[in-house]
Structures are given as C-alpha cells and as structure tokens.
Amino acid sequence: MSNDALRIALLGCGTVGTAVARRLVDHADEFASRVERPVEITGVAVRDTSKPRPESGLDPSVFTTDAEALVRDADVVVELMGGIEPARSLLLTAMEHGASVVTANKALLGEDGPRLYETAAEHGVDLYYEASVAGAIPLLRPLQVSLAGDSVERIMGIVNGTTNFILDKMDRTGEALDDVLAEAQELGYAEADPTADVEGYDARAKAAILASLAFHTRVAALDVSCEGIMSITADDIRAARKMGCVVKLLAICERVRNGRGDQSLSVRVHPTLVPRSHPLASVHDAFNAVFIESALAGEVMFYGQGAGGDPTASAVLGDLVQAARHKVTGSRGPGESAYADLPILPLSQATTRYAIRIEVPDRPGVLAHVTNVFAGQGVSIESMRQGVRRSDDGLATLTIATHAATDAALARTVDQLRLLDDVSTVTSVLRMEGI
Amino acid sequence: MSNDALRIALLGCGTVGTAVARRLVDHADEFASRVERPVEITGVAVRDTSKPRPESGLDPSVFTTDAEALVRDADVVVELMGGIEPARSLLLTAMEHGASVVTANKALLGEDGPRLYETAAEHGVDLYYEASVAGAIPLLRPLQVSLAGDSVERIMGIVNGTTNFILDKMDRTGEALDDVLAEAQELGYAEADPTADVEGYDARAKAAILASLAFHTRVAALDVSCEGIMSITADDIRAARKMGCVVKLLAICERVRNGRGDQSLSVRVHPTLVPRSHPLASVHDAFNAVFIESALAGEVMFYGQGAGGDPTASAVLGDLVQAARHKVTGSRGPGESAYADLPILPLSQATTRYAIRIEVPDRPGVLAHVTNVFAGQGVSIESMRQGVRRSDDGLATLTIATHAATDAALARTVDQLRLLDDVSTVTSVLRMEGI
After folding, report:
1. Which member of B297, B314, B334 has the closest CB to residue A150?
2. A149-304 — its CATH code?
3. Quick check: B219 and B123 in contact, CB under 8 A?
4. Which residue out of A18, A282, A284, A300 would a mutagenesis test of the B interface target, given it has the greatest number of B Cβ atoms within 10 Å?
C-alpha cells in the first residue's frame, strides 16, 4: 500500500470547516490509523485569503481563492460553502477529476441531487452527505445501509432545530411566536432572515433526502408539500395542550398503499399535533430526532444535535473517513438507489387526522349543522369539545378532532364550514400524527 | 456483471432464521434490486430436517443437517444458531472458503471475536454482527463508520430488554423483583433460566462489542466488570424515586484520562441510578436505548426494540445486503480496528458517584461519625437525607449521595461503615450516572 498522504480539499472555512480542519490537524495520527493512510489538507478555498484563521490550525499557505484548481487535484473534496453555485460546479468538476465528495449542502441535494449521483456513479466515486440532515445524528447511513433489508413504512422527523426551539418555548411559556422568534434570533438559534427555517424550506429539503433514501425513489425538494409555522398562535399551543398534545414541525415521509396494493409516497412538512406520550414530543430545545417505522424493525428513533459547528463536523468527518478508506482500498460505497420509482401523491390525497377549531354561537342546532358538514364530506368525527361561552361576543370555541381523512375532503369541509351561518370563524386547522 | 444468484446459507431456523428466510423469499425482487444481483437461499442447516417449516416459505429440499458442506459453498453465511460450538468452527470454515459472514452471536464475539476478525481479514471477507447488540437498532455501523471521524468519550446503554422490563415494572408498580421476574417469564420476556439476563452476562458481552468498536481496542466479555440486578429490592426502587431517579441496568463504556493525559477504558455493567430527566430514564418495557457522548457530536441517542424475531431479522438482513453488495462489487467493509489498544481499568479504579443507604440510631454524634468515615477515605459527600425514626427499632435510614470517587475508595468506606458502632446495617450501595 502506498504511503502517500490522501489529498483533502476543503471548500469553505466557516464554523464547520474550521472544526473539520482543526480535528484533522490535531488528530492526524488517529485519522491515519482509521483510514490506514495519512490524510492531508492540501488546500482550503475561501473568498478572502488575507483573513487570519489561526483557530483552524492550518498553515496560512493552504488557503486559496482558486477553488477550481483545488478540486482538480484532490482525493476527497469536502464542500461546506452552501448554496447552489459555485458549489454544484465545483463538486461536478471534482468528481469528473476522480475525487470523492462529502457535502452538507441540503439545498443543492434537494435541487439537483440526481445530477450529482449520476456524476458520482459515472466516475466511480463516493458522494456522501450525512451532515445534510439532522447534523450530528448518524441517520442517513443507517437508513441506507442498516435498514437495507427491511422496508421503511414511515418517517416522522424533527429536522429543523430553529422551529423546534420556537415551538418548544411557546409550549413551555405560553408566549407568542413573534416574541419567541425574536429571542431565538438573539440567542443565535434563528437567523436574521428566518424564512428558510420558519417557512419549512429547510425541513423540506431534508424530507426530500430522507424520502429518497428510505423509499428508493427520486424525491426533489419541490416534490414535498410544505407549510411553515408562522400561523401557529399561542392559542393553538394552548388548545393542543388541552388535547394532551404538543405542536411540532414534522417532516413526514410515508409509504401509502391503496386497495389494489399499488404503492405511492406522501412526503410533506407541516406543523403537527403530536400526543405528549409520543417519543417525539419530548424532543426539546433545538434538538433533532427522527422516528422511523419499518416492517421488521418496528419503531426506531435517532436523537441528537441537528446543527452547530462541532456536531456537523462529526458527520462530515465520518463521511470523510469512509470516502478516504474507499480511496485506499479502491472500493466505493452504495450509490443512488432509485429502483422503486414510486409516484408521489399530491397533498390533497394525503391522509391524516385533523383538529379543527371554530367559533360558534352557543345556541341550539349549531352542533347538528356543523356535524352535518363533516358527514357530507365523509369526514368522520372522533371527538368534539365545546369551550365556555364568552360573555363579550356570546361565542364559544368548538374543537373537533377527526378520524383519518384526505386533505382534499378536509379542505372541502373547511370551505363549507366557512359558508355556514352558524360558524363565526374557522380559527385553525392542524394535522395530527402519532396517535 | 454476472447474473448468477448469490448463494446464501442459513445456519439455524428458529424465530429469527424463519423471519430472515420469509423476507428473502417474499421480497426477492427488492433484494435483487438492492444487491444488484439475485440472492438465493441455497441451504438451511438445522438439527432435524423432518420438521415441517412452512412459515419459512422455503422449499423443504433446502434443509440439511450437513452444515459443514453448506458453508463451504456459499457467498454469504448467516449464523443464527447461537452458542460457541459448532457456530465458531462453521464460521471459520465459511470464511476460509471465501464466504462473508453475518452473525447475531454476541456470546461468540465476546469470547473469541479477535480470531473471527483475523480470519475475516486474512481471507478478505466481511464479518458483520449488527444484530448482536440492541437488535433492530442500527447502532454498530453508525458507531464504526458514521462516528469514525469523531472521538467517542462514553457510552451508556440499556442493552438487555429482560432486565429493563423487570426494573421498569418494579418502578411502576412497587412490586418485588421475584414477583416481576415470574411475570416476565410468563409473558415470555424472561427465559425459564434467566441467569444470562439478570446476572448481566448478556449485557456484558454487548458492552465488550460496543467498547471494541467505539474505542478501537480489543475488549473481551471477561474484561468487563459485571454486576446483575438480583440484589435490587423494592426499597431500592423506592429510595431511587425519592432521589428523583430510576434504577437501570447499564452497560457503560468510557474513556478515562489521567492527569498525565494517558488514556484507558472503563467497561462495566451494573445497576445504576439515573435521574428521571435523563433520556435513558424514559426507556420503558423491554425497549433498548444507547446513549453516546462524543467529542464533536455531543449527545446522541438510539432507541428501539432490542430483541424479537422480526427486529433481529431487520438487522441481519441489513448486514446481509451489505455483505452481498460487496460480493457483487468485489469490495469489503471496514475490518477490525484495534489500533488504539487502550488498557482496561480494573473496576476498583472506575470513578463514579454513589448512593449509600445505611440504618443508624437516631442519636447525637452519629452523623459526625459517619461523615468522618467518608472524609477519611477522601470520598466527598454531595447530599445526605435522613428518614423518620422508626418506632419499632429506633433506627432511621440515612441516604448519602457522594461526589465522584473510585470504586476502591468507596469499598473501603463501606467496609469501615460496617465496623462502626453507630451503623446498624449498610442496606445498599448503588452507582449513579448521568447527573
């Protein structure tokens, strides 16, 4: 076996890149033992080479602005710049020149994954992205490899730490979303522009990656129905509590079987009522957790930190060791598996349970009219709870939990409720899972 | 690529073997897609071929009593017979003849793992054993591969479902161990001879496997200090509850650093007080969970079913797909990694916190005498709680929680307490973790 060091190129040197570099430098002997060959950072592409980066532990001479040249001469390229371009072009160039690739770039995978997989396959290199979903939690490899002999039926994941922090805080303190969001921004749990998190776009890209691996089907981010948390009110959280539930933003990927045995997928992100007894309900703060149901293994849960420099570096370095080992032994890990090619259901055909809160006048006949609307759409009511009539407007809150129904049937039900004289307002409609 | 089917040999056809066979038969197309070659069960070694096994879905002609011939002509051998011999000889023969091997046999790995690893390395085949620890939970591969760039500092695992069922039941109902054990036997959660579970031997073999993978060091079952749950009383559980704790049988594997920066390992199995707020405390019934602390990833937890035919089959089939893929591509997975070769500390040098319950007469000066004993051994007291004096014998229960101390210092402390006139009985000594 050659003893030449494996050449590692880093693209980007922010928090994660610095943690990755530091670890590789400080634990060089350990990495050499695990890879069975020394590994060496031959270059780090950055925008500004004049900025001192002592915390990386790297010699200043390895920093370069010429990422293009760097990726043409590496054994493994680690991409931590984020965004679509130039990350995509650089990864494609790297693979075309024989480098294996490690990335944490969920946006790129969600948008153009298949092109990356195909390039990896064509050039016989590895494409790893464990860090792209649920940060430090070893999740994608278990899903892709360990459960490869099983059949995943359903995944429910808390995969966005920012929104979990916000919803958990709202649940604990009763505060309004805007207040908690502002606090999350102060603490660094939410970005100045929180759109990608609170609108669910981040979770959507991760749902696409999870569904692709679990169901052997190409799922792009835009295939995933997505609803964020901005409309969740302190009242919603309070109502959830009364029902013994918490509100979580879940990425849900499930195999759906129709009566003829045909299979399809429902992949969606939305705020969801989860019973407090469910393992996902006790995931607090900015932690992530992914709950998997499979035919043989039953229920399995993975829990840990979803973000942060060190946790993300842990996942990146695990991939790096694996890709480097393969370079040493001349093998490669499993590539894309999309043989099942299942159709993806539109949200309207997704089936779930709902909790609907409406404001109604407290007078005889109202309940009959309301329940008739549900019956007319074939939506079966599981329970109904009427609050106390308020003295100011004479209205009472009615909370209705349904049995499983399609999103389309529910939408028609809500439309009709809105037209009903007896319904003053439809205050909220939330999906329920894990019951 | 050749399209000849890969030849799979099963050794044993009990609950797990039947579930494995059934899945391979019923989902042949799926396995062919995932492996990129058809897989075929060419033989199943059993003691009695005349016994009908329709639930396996296999043709009766594949059953054989000639395991020796079977393993000489297979691509992948799946060993589910358990015990040391003939399993060991058959696996060695299989690997010598070029077959990769999948096993759930923790006893064999705990006793003679290195010989198996060396044979696998020598013949360039895979040796996988995901099912040997925590059944369905994808755990060993994440530990070995996903965390390969990180540094595991500590593992605390509930890896024996039987004892967790018993301790959880005792906590919920206040019943005595003997009663709950009898019930567990009736329900099939405990065997007629429960020794391996309740004495901690099963957990000990699993601790050895976890420590070997996490710390790149050979650890055999007999290197692991082991204490079972038979001495745990309803009073212990009640006292734990008063301290805000539950009692769990934990497999603990930790990296220990001394003042000079030298590293060693402490690997042990014992009943442990765990605070109710710790994620491991909410692992109920016969479920398993493994909590890992590592330098970069922080805290990660894996949770799921630890035993049962289908869950174990899930892990076995994941290994089988991986080994079969490697046969198709001519590669192999990571072999044994024992480069760190860390020394294993004797239990006397393990450092942990303790909760000690003693019976003392309620008279002046007793507390001073008792605390002097601790001080004399350098064991620092964290808290002390005295119960109400009982009218029948004039004694009161004193519960003392210590700061971290070595097992040796604690043992000397307990010896001296026993000699003290002021101490009527040392009722129990339990270790505390996760605080």
Report:
1. B314
2. 3.30.360.10
3. no
4. A300
Chain A residues with CB-CB distance to B317 below 8 A: 148-150, 296
Closest Cα in chain B to A150: B314
Contacts of B187 (CB under 8 A, 6+ apart): none
Strand segments, DSSP code E, in B320-394 are 351-361, 381-386
Residue A173 is encoded by which pair of tokens?
Answer: 């303190």
Tell me, yes or no, if B314 comes closer than 8 A to chain A by beta carbon: yes
> What are B220-254's pLDDT values in tens digits?
999 999 999 999 999 999 999 999 999 999 999 99
Residue B4 makes CB contacts below 8 A (sequence gap 6+) with B37
Q: Both tokens of residue A420?
A: 């009903």
- Tell me the C-alpha distance between B282 and B290, whole Å: 12
Chain A closest-CA separation from residue B137 CA (Å): 6
What is the distance in angstroms between the Cα of B226 and the nearest Cα belonging to chain A? 28
CA–CA separation, B425 and B203 (whole Å): 30
- Give dist(CA A429, CA A417) in Å, integer: 12
**Cis peptide leading into B194, omega within 30 of 0?**
no
User: In which residue ranges of chain A is CATH 3.40.50.720 found?
Assistant: 6-135+310-329
Averaged pLDDT, B4-23? 95
Q: Contact at 8 Å (CB) between B434 and B353?
A: no
User: How many angstroms separate the CA of residue B298 from the nearest CA in chain A?
Assistant: 7
Q: Is some CB atom of chain A closer than 8 A to the CB atom of B297? A: yes
Q: ipTM for the complex?
A: 0.89
CATH number given to B6-135+310-329:
3.40.50.720
Q: What is the pLDDT of residues A395-427, one digit of tens each?
A: 999 999 999 999 999 999 999 999 998 899 999
Strand order in the sheet with A39-45: A63-64, A39-45, A6-11, A76-79, A100-103, A127-128
The CATH 3.30.360.10 portion of chain B extends over 148-305
In chain A, residues with a C-beta closer than 8 Å to the C-beta of B304 are 297-301
Q: How far apart are CA A339 and CA A218, in angstroms?
A: 9
Looking at chain A, the whole-number percentage of residues with pLDDT higher than 70 is 99
Residues of chain A neighbouring B152 (CB-CB closer than 8 A): none
User: What is the tens place of the pLDDT at every residue in B329-342?
Assistant: 888 888 888 889 99
- Within 10 angstroms of residue B293's Cβ, the number of other Cβ atoms is 15
Contacts with A330 from chain B: Cβ below 8 Å: 331
* Domain B347-432 superfamily per CATH: ACT domain (3.30.70.260)
- Is B242 assigned a ligand-binding role in the annotation? no
Distance CA B153, CA B156 (A): 10
The CATH architecture to which B148-305 belongs is 2-Layer Sandwich (3.30)
Distance of alpha carbon A222 from alpha carbon B208, whole angstroms: 46
The residues with which A103 forms a beta bridge, in sequence order, are: A79
**Domain(s) of CATH 3.30.70.260: residues in chain A:** 347-432
Q: What is residue A377's DSSP assignment?
A: T
Phi-psi region for residue B57, left (φ > 0), alpha (ψ -120 to 50) or beta? left
- pLDDT score of B1: 43
Q: Which of B148, B216, B322 is closest, CB to CB, to A318?
A: B148
Residue with tokens 């570096």: A313
Tens of pLDDT, residues B274-308: 998 888 998 999 999 999 999 999 999 999 998 88
In chain A (435 residues long), the average pLDDT of successive 10-residue segments reads: 83 94 94 92 94 90 96 97 95 97 93 93 95 90 88 96 96 96 92 95 95 95 95 95 95 93 95 92 93 95 91 95 92 86 93 95 88 95 88 89 95 95 93 88
Token digits of residue B372: 């002097």
User: At B135, phi and psi to the nearest 5?
Assistant: 35, -110
Residue B123: closest CA among B147, B91, B150, B155? B91
